[in-house]
Design brief:
The structure is a single chain. The chain is of the alpha/beta class and 115 residues long. It contains three helices and five strands; from the N terminus they run E-H-E-E-E-H-E-H. The protein has helices at residues 10-19, 53-78, 96-109, and strands spanning 5-6, 21-24, 28-34, 41-45, 81-87. It has a five-stranded mixed beta sheet with strand order 1-4-5-3-2, with helices on both faces. Helix 2 links the parallel strand 4 and strand 5.
Length: 115
């Protein structure tokens, strides 16, 4: 199983925001775009609206843990895609299991993983 790579450059984030499919939920917004690299890349965004640094980092950790569980189960389908997850105000109050269910729902809606 391959590991995921982190998206760090602003141009990659903007490309996913502009050209990717988006899926909204009360706790999470997901952007998905197919890439040419053949690897799974993930980016996480949290704004200052979420709260102070502790709450933003908690939100990032929850999203990262939820994506790791999704990747363990559906990793072969996720290769070749860029994912950007945007935390919302309710993200920090959720468990990683809840976020995992939201991610799977978004990925099924986007036909990334089979229903």
């Amino acid at each position: 199983m391959k590991q995921t790579v982190t998206i760090k450059s602003n141009c990659d984030f903007r490309r996913v925001y502009g050209k990717g499919k988006s899926f909204q939920g009360p706790a999470l917004v997901s952007y998905v775009l197919k890439n040419r690299a053949g690897i799974c890349r993930i980016g996480i965004t949290t704004s200052k609206k979420i709260g102070n640094a502790v709450e933003r980092n908690k939100s990032r950790r929850l999203i990262r843990a939820a994506f790791q569980n999704v990747y363990k189960e559906y990793g072969e389908y996720l290769e070749g895609y860029d994912f950007v997850f945007v935390a919302r105000g309710r993200t920090r109050y959720r468990k990683s299991y809840d976020l995992e269910q939201v991610m799977v729902k978004h990925l099924k809606k986007g036909n990334i993983i089979p229903s």
